[in-house]
């Protein structure tokens, strides 16, 4: 809180204004593999502004970032996120300075280095994350936990080293939700620290995309990557009841909008974008209409006389009505010219730093427009701001 002595007023900081206008700040993290360093950059910029989420919901790499965020106090989150990403992007072939500086090279060289890094990930794995499974080419396997190209055992050790799971399971400090798919039933589920004791395997399950990564066993059931069903946990946050006035930072790694592909390589990239963007705009529009209807129902119920309120119909309506306000700030990672269809498994240090810096820049740009974070008008209780398109709805 800052004092404006000339005006004789006290000026609230952005963090204080958000705390005044909203009961909760939620962070929604989409899946996207190596692109997830963009989300870490967003966190760095939020941390600079003193904005700390009360709830983090993630899918796949978003779930792994969520583990680091929730598993550390605010003052250490950026440091731990940096350690996590530097660990899993450690270049085993080329000197780190050479790979890092590749981003400054001509586009042709950038394409070559980026492709080399993706090829290396496929053939060698990533330090502290996954390594090739020697038995994957054999015609038999010992079970669902080994039926994959790669072994993710190193990821468990990385999570245990960088995240405090006692802290993760303290829902009073931060709520945590991560999505996965039950392999046997096909049901999409959320593991949530308000009802589950979260362990490394819950986060690993959320990122267990087959056939690359194996199914993860949790309490006798096996789970795959939540992105197979829904890659964006926005609906989980927006549909929570009872709801509260909430500011949502939705950080997506795949854009639903794109260009027409001209060859099979571009077809592979575009199909991935469409699949993993998870119909974000459709979910947002659905929840906007739902909340407007609930607000209208709430206002209409205020007109009911007191002596008519003790009825079953009124109580049923009351359970569906709400007067909460929601603001969704939508950030989407923007592709670099040298990236290809392998961008989600291209873990070079150069690309990681590029993604991270993009996240910092986009979030700083957002926070430079505090009006975007203002509480919605009750007449329009649900608003969205698309940072990259300059749109509000």
Account of the protein in words:
This protein has 393 residues and is α/β, with parallel strands linked by helices. Helices cover 39% and strands 16% of the residues. The chain is built from 14 helices and 14 strands. The strands form 3 sheets. Strands 3, 4, 7, 8, 9, 10, 11, 12, 13 and 14 form a 10-stranded mixed β-sheet that branches. A two-stranded antiparallel ribbon has the order 1-2. The protein has a two-stranded antiparallel ribbon with strand order 5-6. Helix 2 packs antiparallel against helix 4. The longest helix is centred in the C-terminal third of the chain and has 22 residues. The protein is globular.
Shape: globular
Provide the succession of SSEs: EEHEHEHHHHEEHHEEHEEHEHHHEHEE
Uncertain runs are: 1-7, 96-100, 105-109
Count of distinct strands:
14
Q: Over the alpha carbons, how many angstroms does the gyration radius reach?
A: 22 Å
What structural class results from the helix and strand content? alpha/beta
Report the β-strand fraction as a percent range: 15-25%
**What fraction, in percent, of the residue positions are helical?**
25-40%
Provide mean pLDDT, rounded. Answer: 87
Tally the helices: what do you get?
Answer: 14
First CA to last CA: what distance?
30 Å
* Sheet of most strands: 10 strands, mixed
Blueprint (SSEs and pairs):
Layout lengths: L1 E3 L4 E3 L2 H8 L2 E6 L7 H12 L6 E5 L1 H10 L6 H12 L7 H5 L6 H18 L6 E2 L17 E2 L1 H10 L2 H4 L6 E8 L5 E5 L7 H7 L9 E3 L2 E5 L8 H5 L7 E7 L11 H13 L3 H22 L10 H9 L5 E7 L16 H19 L14 E5 L4 E2 L1
Parallel strand pairs: 3-4, 3-11, 4-7, 11-12, 12-13
Antiparallel strand pairs: 1-2, 5-6, 7-8, 7-10, 9-10, 13-14
Helix pairs in contact: 2-4, 2-14, 3-4, 3-9, 12-13
């Amino acid at each position: 809180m800052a004092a404006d002595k000339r005006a004789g007023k006290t000026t609230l900081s952005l963090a204080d204004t958000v705390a005044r206008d909203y009961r909760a700040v939620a962070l929604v993290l989409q899946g996207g593999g190596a692109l997830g360093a963009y989300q870490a950059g967003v966190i760095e910029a939020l941390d600079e502004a003193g904005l700390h989420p009360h709830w983090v919901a993630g899918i796949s790499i978003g779930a792994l970032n969520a583990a680091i965020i929730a598993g550390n106090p605010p003052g250490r989150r950026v440091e731990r996120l940096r350690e996590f990403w530097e660990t899993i992007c450690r270049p085993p072939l080329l000197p780190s300075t050479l790979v890092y500086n590749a981003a400054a090279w001509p586009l042709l060289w950038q394409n070559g280095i980026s492709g080399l890094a993706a090829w290396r990930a496929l053939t060698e794995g990533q330090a502290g994350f996954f390594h090739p499974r020697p038995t994957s080419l054999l015609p038999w396997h010992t079970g669902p936990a080994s039926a994959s190209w790669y072994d993710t055992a190193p990821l468990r050790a990385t999570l245990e080293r960088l995240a405090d799971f006692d802290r993760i399971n303290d829902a009073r400090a931060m709520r945590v939700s991560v999505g996965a798919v039950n392999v046997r039933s096909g049901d999409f589920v959320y593991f949530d620290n308000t009802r589950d004791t979260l362990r490394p395997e819950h986060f690993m399950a959320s990122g267990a995309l087959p056939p690359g990564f194996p199914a993860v066993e949790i309490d006798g059931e096996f789970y795959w990557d939540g992105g197979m069903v829904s890659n964006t946990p926005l609906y989980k946050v927006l549909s929570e009841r009872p709801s509260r006035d909430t500011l949502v930072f939705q950080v997506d790694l795949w854009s639903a909008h794109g260009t027409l592909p001209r060859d099979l390589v571009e077809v592979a990239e575009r199909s991935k974008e469409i699949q993993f963007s998870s119909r974000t705009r459709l979910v947002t529009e659905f929840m906007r209409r739902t909340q407007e209807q609930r607000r209208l129902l709430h206002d209409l119920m205020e007109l009911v006389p007191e002596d008519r309120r003790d009825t079953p119909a009124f109580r049923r309506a009351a359970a569906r009505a709400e007067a909460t306000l929601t603001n969704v700030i939508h950030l989407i990672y923007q592709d670099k010219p040298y990236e290809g269809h392998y961008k989600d498994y291209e873990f070079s240090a150069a690309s990681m730093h590029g993604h991270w810096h993009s996240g910092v820049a986009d979030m700083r740009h957002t926070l430079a427009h505090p009006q975007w974070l203002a509480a919605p008008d009750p007449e329009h209780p649900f608003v969205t701001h698309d940072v990259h398109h300059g749109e509000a709805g």
